[in-house]
């Protein structure tokens, strides 16, 4: 005699004793062996979409070969499986596979050896078939109606268990999809917000060479240059060329954080650390763990925060505001400034020891006025970019006179000033002799000399880039990336300007 209530209670406790389903099934198997012959357990399901069985979780003894996770059934069993899957759930005691109907025998033989006994219980919740629970033993004629009745007591907890397994798998699937989407969207975002480095083969060639050298390392990088030269773009390039690519890239504008909140933002705080700290908060350094943190305008950090930043660089640890425990962080630091940190050190506005820690690998980004050869490509890039943002269908063309004016300008605001100028020009318009839309009914208003000169400027620049890339148009280190345009757009321009490369050149 068995106390069924006690059996149900103990079996359920064992089944839900671990979040790991394999561990839980092993504990359940060890318990029910006391009352039922059993060598192993299987939680499975039939997937009608692919006409296959799926093993969701199982415990198999060493002396039995474990089937694969997915068992594909032959087409001739399709009708039988789908009919059985739609029938009323049942419990079956199978002591000899050879005595079963032909379809059942064929299906069971694809999973189990001949000399085995099985108890199969269909699992259903709210008229929805979830799967099947099976216990088995390597001998024939081992199970009785008593064993069948005992197993039937566990229908509800086993249904909950298989439901949890299915939900967990769905969560993992959605997590993988989300990660894939995030990776794709991050890449697209980088492409749209400055991943393309215009001038990499010309005015910024020395900068890019330094990026290639330091990117594989974990050394701190200090980017120096005037406001608007593109320090964030170079920081992106360092991160994306490093082993930390795909890990977090956290960007911080140190000058935009109120002094009273700097420590909390960078290093986090514990609940109750100060008035208004109702919850524990992870700082930006914690969020950047295993990745990179970009500290823009690092010269704006107050001295107190500089001390804590120095500790991160020296000890690879942080401590939340109000906390007593040190937390290890693995973060690469890229900092940037338009200020003269060396002079700030002399004046007492920046810690000397922090300056030496940040200045391990300095990269100076030249201002735009020192690289006028990059301006035609930058103009082309910003016209394409801003036209898309402003939904301007016809891409404007600039006259050679205007290009010349742009190259002779001092650009105190650097690339950012040029970008703003192009956007403003697209919105308000430039004098008609300097900016014309590429429409047949407007071409007459553009002097022939201007059209010819502009084509010459663009043709010369595209040709120079193609020579640098050995005629490669798309892909990594292709001309389209360096020019900041889509490969199909570049090919169209090459065709219009009669620039022959690749197959066209050979023909």
Structural class, from secondary structure content?
alpha/beta
Instruction: Report the biggest beta sheet as strand number plus sense, adding barrel if it closes.
Output: 6 strands, antiparallel
How many helical stretches?
20
**What is CATH's topology name of the largest domain?**
Rossmann fold
CATH class of the largest domain: Alpha Beta
Distance between the termini: 92 Å
Radius of gyration: 34 Å
Could you say how many structural domains there are in total? 3
What is the number of strand segments? 17
Poorly predicted residue ranges: 431-452
Mean pLDDT: 81
* Shape-level CATH architecture of the largest domain: 3-Layer(aba) Sandwich
- The helicity comes to 40-55%
Order of neighbouring strands in the sheet with most strands? 3-2-1-6-5-4
Question: What would the principal axes of the Cα set say about the shape?
Answer: elongated
Strand content: 15-25%
CATH superfamily of the largest domain: P-loop containing nucleotide triphosphate hydrolases
Question: TL;DR of this structure?
Answer:
This protein has 507 residues and is an alpha/beta fold. The protein has three domains: 4-169, Beta-Lactamase, CATH 3.30.450; 194-366, P-loop containing nucleotide triphosphate hydrolases (Rossmann fold), CATH 3.40.50.300; 370-506, no CATH class.
Provide key terms for this protein.
507 residues, Rossmann fold, Beta-Lactamase, 6-stranded antiparallel β-sheet, 5-stranded parallel β-sheet, 20 helices, alpha/beta, 17 strands
